[in-house]
């Protein structure tokens, strides 16, 4: 399965969970997805943390990715994501990406994949996607973590935002100076 291959290849980082849904062969993952790996830290093979990740990624996959939700600190990492993972995108994959440094929401078609891009400086992609899809916690009641992703994917199938369809180059030129806001212990 694709996600197990990613796990074995150190492409999953800060894993929240990786488990099979109630549909055999369909897996769910929540955590970070490595876009650019870390450099070698020593002669023993240890590496530094990744140079770039998709934060709080939500992936539903069998042999191909059916759904990809997550956060990017910089829209310039979208082409990196596409280059690294596009061969694993299922036909008709649903993708909602929350991006810190874009000014306006947009739809971008790259190859045969439509990406919904939404500005987000502070927040969690899972929660923001729930809000975009008008889902509530009760919609996931009694489900395993992986099956919650199936519910999200089923609702994403019906999602039809009115965001402008743009070329990626147009999105790359309409940037904000926003930086991701991080909260932690004081």
Summary tags:
186 residues; alpha/beta; 8-stranded mixed beta sheet; 23% helix
Secondary-structure map with pairings?
Elements lengths: L1 H7 L3 E9 L6 E10 L15 E10 L3 E8 L4 H9 L3 E11 L6 E5 L2 E7 L5 H8 L12 H12 L8 E2 L1 H6 L13
Order of helices and strands: HEEEEHEEEHHEH
Rg calculated over all Cα atoms: 16 Å
Largest sheet: 8 strands, mixed
The general outline is globular
Strand content: 25-35%
Helix content: 10-25%
The whole-number mean of residue pLDDT values reads: 93
Low-confidence stretches: none
Domain count: the total is 1
Number of strands: 8
The number of helical elements comes to 5
Describe the structure.
With 186 residues, this protein is an alpha/beta fold. 23% of the residues lie in helices and 33% in strands. The chain is built from five helices and eight strands, in the order αββββαβββααβα. It has helices at residues 2-8, 77-85, 125-132, 145-156, 168-173, and strands spanning 12-20, 27-36, 52-61, 65-72, 89-99, 106-110, 113-119, 165-166. The protein has an eight-stranded mixed β-sheet with strand order 1-2-3-4-5-7-6-8. The longest helix has 12 residues, at 145-156.
Provide a quick synopsis of the model.
Helices cover 23% and strands 33% of the residues. The chain has 186 residues and is α/β, with parallel strands linked by helices. The protein is globular, with a radius of gyration of 16 Å.
């Amino acid at each position: 399965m694709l996600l197990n291959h990613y796990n074995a290849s150190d492409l999953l980082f800060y894993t929240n969970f990786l488990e099979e849904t109630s549909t055999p062969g369909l897996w769910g993952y929540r955590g970070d997805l490595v876009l650019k790996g870390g450099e070698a830290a020593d002669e023993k093979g240890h590496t530094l943390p990744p140079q770039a990740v998709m934060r709080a990624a939500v992936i539903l996959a069998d042999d191909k990715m059916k759904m990809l939700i997550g956060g990017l600190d910089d829209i310039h990492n979208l082409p990196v994501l596409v280059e690294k993972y596009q061969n694993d995108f299922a036909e008709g994959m649903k993708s909602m990406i929350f991006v810190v440094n874009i000014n306006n929401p947009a739809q971008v078609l790259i190859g045969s994949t439509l990406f919904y891009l939404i500005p987000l400086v502070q927040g969690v992609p899972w929660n923001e996607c729930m809000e975009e899809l008008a889902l509530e916690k009760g919609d996931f009641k009694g489900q395993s973590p992986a099956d919650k992703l199936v519910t999200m994917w089923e609702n994403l199938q019906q999602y039809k935002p009115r965001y402008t369809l743009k070329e990626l180059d147009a999105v790359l030129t309409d940037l904000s100076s926003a930086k991701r806001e991080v909260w932690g212990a004081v």
